[in-house]
Amino acid sequence: xxxxxxxxxxxxxxxxxxxxxxxxxxxxxxxxxxxxxxxxxxxxxxxxxxxxxxxxxxxxxxxxxxxxxxxxxxxxxxxxxxxxxxxxxxxxxxxxxxxxxxxxxxxxxxxxxxxxxxxxxxxxxxxxxxxxxxxxxxxxxxxxxxxxxxxxxxxxxxxxxxxxxxxxxxxxxxxxxxxxxxx
Length: 183
What we know:
This protein is an alpha+beta fold. It is built from five helices and twelve strands. The chain has one domain: Umud Fragment, subunit A. It is a single-pass type II membrane protein. It catalyses: Cleavage of hydrophobic, N-terminal signal or leader sequences from secreted and periplasmic proteins. Its EC number is 3.4.21.89.
């Protein structure tokens, strides 16, 4: 009888430790997210499942063109691409991104730009027209979806405070046929 009780206690401890470890990993390190909508097409499809690396910005800084997940003003989490870092001047003209006066390539948009026949993929704007400032404020990011015509992003909701960023994401794990690292 004592052996059964001891074995039960060992299994219970192992199960509790496993559950606590899984919860800690999910809460502090990695979390799953489902892409909801078309705002990141063609890079990400609706219902793609991804892993968010929550540790990525605790130990490092965001980099331009990272794909991030953040808390949006509507009490939802959004997934978008970092376009502007603190202190950057952002401008779009002739379907070209300019950061601090320098034109930037956006290779992730090339295939999509070729399909658009009725105007630019990204309407022209300056950061000042959007947020009333010439540069991205300190501690904030300017983000945009890859599906520029149908994305609710910093052009609509303003810059994103760094404390609202959950982390960086780049791994699609579902559907299985689409498993890959995205850039």
